[in-house]
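hiii, so i know i said id send this last week but things got crazy w the move. better late than never?? heres the sequnce for the chain we talked about at the cafe, plus the structure i predicted for it. fair warning i was half asleep when i ran it
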Amino acid sequence: MIYNWDFKYKELIIEMYKEIFTDIEKENFDTSVKFITKDTIAKTIVAID
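okay and structure toks below
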């Protein structure tokens, strides 16, 4: 599947993940970031939709 990142939820997703990444930066970025993938974001978008 090809993801189009110019979608209407872009701003919302950015805000959501900004909070998550802020938390990760306090911990170990390298190990935590593995769990946040395009697939995860896509599932989030589907759930919102």
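btw Residues 10-48 form one domain. thought thatd interest u
miss u guys!!
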